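Re: that chain you flagged

S.,

Sorry for the slow reply, it's been a week of failed gels. I finally had a moment to sit down with the sequence you sent. For the record, here it is as I used it:
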Amino acid sequence: VQLVESGGGLVQAGGSLRLSCATSGVNFTEHAVGWFRQAPGKEREGVSCMSGYTKIKYYADSVKGRFSISSDNAKNTVYLQMNNLKPDDTGVYYCAADLGSWYPTCQIGGLEVWGQGTLVTVSS
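Prediction finished late last night. Pasting the structure tokens below so you have them in one place:
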């Protein structure tokens, strides 16, 4: 199983970025996929997760209405469209697949497999 993120970078507040996560060995009908982030000095948190099969989606309250998760099952790729970015969105964004569940709980502590992370920096 492998996950590779791309699309991070530096953006001004109010701007947009789209993150991509190319996966291999992940079965979108069996494994929930999603995005987590870790800000400096803080714990890793779930941002948005989904079932690639049922399209059930979860969003953290802090990103509702601004972020949108989607998947292209034919390409085995998960996306995170981030709009109206804020400085508090700064952090390393990780793509993950939960090999133990199809339901997107977006919680850490299951059978997650992680990508290497991509840095998002939002300047004020």
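What I noticed first: The longest strand covers residues 17-24.

Talk soon,
D.
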